[in-house]
Amino acid sequence: MLTIGILGSKQFIDTISKHYSNYPDITFISYLYQSPKDTEPYIEKAYQETDFLLFSGIIAYYHARKQLQKYPLNSMYLSFRELVLSLSLFSIHYHHHFPLHSLSIDLPDKSVLDGLLKELQITDKPYVKDYAWIYQLEQHRNSLDIESYIRFHVNLFHQKKTTFALTSIHAVYDQLQKHNIPSIYMMQPSTLLKEELEKVVTLAKLEKAKDAQIAVISVHTSFPDTQTDNHSLQLAILQKLQKIGRKLNAHVSMEQMQPFLVYTNQGTLEQFQIENVLQELDSLTEGIDLKFEVGIGYGYTVQDAESHASQALSYAAKQSSKHTITYLIDERKQLKGPLFQNEKNISLQNEDSNIQQLAAQCQISTKNLLRFIEFVRVHQFRSFTASALASYLNLSRRSAERLIKRLLEKNLLLVTGEEQPYEQGRPRALYNISEKFKQQITIKILH
By residue range, what is the domain housing residue 398? Predict the structure, then answer.
């Protein structure tokens, strides 16, 4: 019998437990907390009692991260979706008729709200407090201060700046109700909960069937200019992935396209053979000027495997080729690729004491320093701009410039010239690593 644990607030457990009956062959164990910071004590218990653990959200998962390293339980958290936010705002508008500027909102990442308002061409703005930093799981160890989010809503309401609060944190909602502040918790659409539960069940069955790391395949393609019916081609790709998914007994995500995501496990994928997956994809390119970038990630948790697949895909996207390019990052953060093309294994770990010392001197994380080194290697030691570095590292332009400044201060980078934009604008500085940098850092490439 397969056992799945669900860890969350009473409200979340009450909502998602309505769908347990859809899986009569699964045993569900509910773990209720009063506050998401109280998740740690449940991890050892869940490790002993369950095969897979679903967290209600990123906050609970964040607070349990340390214990999960001690008890490597297969797990994932419920991701925050734009649909959750849009339905909640629609409900407030329809039932309460409050304008946006009279609302206070807390949510994981305010860029989701900004993007939604921009798409709808809405200029009215609510008061917003987010906790986007929490996604940088490896770089932050501080605790989320629930009280600060309660004060955020309460102070605005008492100052008569707002008349209604929308919160993504159950513990905050409970306190707002005690303060008699009109508020709602963000809506959890039944369809999304059922889809997430289906994903959890599929992954748990895969893990039960074969003890192996979770594997995520991330597939992206750039459609040729000559192809006018991109929607039909996207559906053809999705159908092909679903066919592959049936052979792998895998879950193909319907949440997004570009990149497409396929969830399976390492043992099943390797038994089917990665090369067979790529051949299946390449069969779509006959008669069409089309190629794929593929990133494969292994991990003990879904989030780790997704993160590794995303990083692997970014490496594949940086390579110029007329053929499908595939990279893989395993659970030990070893980068391998391009697969089936004289691939090399590259260590992304930070075990090198020189790297650790240099990162400390420059006041940057070892992770970012390692990724910078890989950026230099992939670009074949050519000069680069701050924009190119920001794009590769998935950082803001300001963060990339801050990293460059610190390396310049330590004489690890040199300004090698300027690049003039094609359109009007200021010239952009070009940088490259210095001889001092080359002497201090050895880029390990394992054949």
Answer: 353-446
